[in-house]
Design a protein that fits this description.
By secondary structure, the chain is of the alpha/beta class. 41% of the residues lie in helices and 15% in strands. The strands form two sheets. It has a seven-stranded mixed sheet. Strands 1-12-2-3-4 form a five-stranded mixed sheet, with no helix packed on it. The longest helix has 39 residues, at 69-107. The protein is elongated. It starts with a helix and ends with a strand.
């Protein structure tokens, strides 16, 4: 009965902490208070929340990863029950191991050879090792890999690229997901690193926020600090629409960050960003595949035939869409995000989840689509779980060279 009481108190304590995070910690973070510290606390508590959160999602009570009141209450009940049962199971395993160790000690005479391990001992030892390995991996993915980013570099040949644009440097930022797990200071570090890389063009490929409308204005303010030599272009992602697409559009317009969803602009051979041009490079964009429309005519029609085109699409699956393939428009490179590289990459397995209908094909890096090459950024932030494992965040530097 004693271990049952401990398990009950543990489950209830988890429930109380989850309510405290929802009522106190998350609003404080959204208000900009102590975000670095609160990000760790909220993210750590979310790991305990995942079982109930998953059940609520499956039952449709957390649409677009946003909890309704009913969804939160159901998740809370499920989590309390889950952690009570888990505590009982863990206690049972530990007791089995204790009894096995004790019985081995009592029956082992110093003059006799050590007995072989029993099946129970092997199971207990294996379970402990697996638990320790899993806990270590989660701690590494939570405290280490999720909090630093790599700078990747690609040289991509483009047919028909103007000599004046040879060596054009595009820095792509994707899936920043400023939200309860990621501080504004961390976003600022991304912006400062990007500026240090001296980009000619910054391409923003969507999903700037996560879980709250309160993060839209701060992330737009930080993105306005970008200082490319030529200019910045952006498209929106599914999370931007889920939080409030109209507010995001308003904030980007207020900060003079051009959104080119179902639109385009041009980089001239003398490296200026203009609305119309007969020579140079076309930078086009389409709306998010999940939450918007993809209008290829306003993005790509009437572009001079010899001019190369780069298409920004938050979701790389656009590369396989029948409407895109049937449009017949030339695209020399598509820049996308959305997948986070799977966010967790298991040796010998790859990413269990990529949010792409084509699995690993567009999970990360450069892939050849039916009509054009697609570069999918691993992104910078996280969703669902505050962990990255084997898929570090990425600032992508893409240098265009004449084919």
């Amino acid at each position: 009965m004693k271990q049952h009481r401990y398990a009950l108190w543990f489950g209830l304590a988890v429930g109380v902490l989850l309510v405290f995070a929802e009522v106190v910690l998350i609003p404080l973070h959204a208000a900009g208070r102590a975000q670095a510290l609160l990000g760790y606390l909220i993210g750590g508590l979310h790991l305990f929340e995942i079982p109930g959160f998953t059940v609520s999602e499956l039952l449709g009570l957390c649409p677009n990863h946003t909890r309704t009141n009913r969804g939160f209450i159901l998740a809370l009940v499920v989590n309390v029950l889950f952690w009570i049962i888990s505590a009982l199971i863990i206690k049972r395993i530990l007791r089995l191991g204790h009894f096995s160790d004790t019985s081995s000690t009592e029956t082992n005479d110093s003059d006799q050879p050590a007995p072989r391990y029993s099946r129970r001992q092997l199971l207990v030892t294996g379970g402990r090792a697996a638990a320790a390995t899993t806990a270590s991996a989660i701690a590494y993915g939570f405290f280490a890999e999720a909090r630093w980013f790599e700078i990747s570099r690609q040289q991509i040949p483009i047919k028909g690229l103007s000599p004046g644009l040879n060596g054009l440097r595009i820095v792509q930022l994707s899936d920043i997901h400023h939200g309860p797990w990621m501080s504004r200071k961390w976003v600022r570090q991304i912006i400062e690193t990007t500026n240090f890389l001296a980009p000619d063009v910054v391409a923003l490929t969507g999903d700037y926020v996560y879980q709250s409308l309160e993060y839209v204005e701060p992330v737009a303010a930080e993105l306005a600090r970008l200082c490319p030599r030529i200019g910045t272009v952006a498209v929106m992602g599914n999370h931007d629409w889920w939080e409030n697409g109209q507010v995001m559009q308003t904030e980007f317009a207020r900060r003079n960050i051009p959104l080119i969803d179902n639109d385009r602009c041009f980089v001239t051979p003398n490296r200026r960003l203009v609305k119309n041009a007969k020579e140079g490079l076309c930078l086009a964009g389409v709306g998010d595949l999940w939450e918007d429309r993809q209008l290829y005519d306003p993005a790509l029609a009437d572009v001079p035939g010899g001019m190369p085109r780069i298409l920004l699409s938050h979701n790389p699956d656009v590369a396989e869409q029948p409407d895109f393939l049937q449009s017949g428009y030339r695209v020399d490179l598509m820049l996308s995000g959305h997948t986070h590289g799977g966010q967790i990459w298991l040796p010998g397995v790859g990413a269990p989840v990529t949010n792409s209908r084509f699995g690993m094909k567009y999970a990360k890096g450069l892939a050849q689509g039916p009509a054009c090459p697609v570069f999918t950024s691993r992104g910078l932030g996280m969703t669902v779980m505050p962990i990255r494992l084997g898929v570090p965040p990425e600032i992508a530097v893409i240098e265009l060279i004449s084919a």
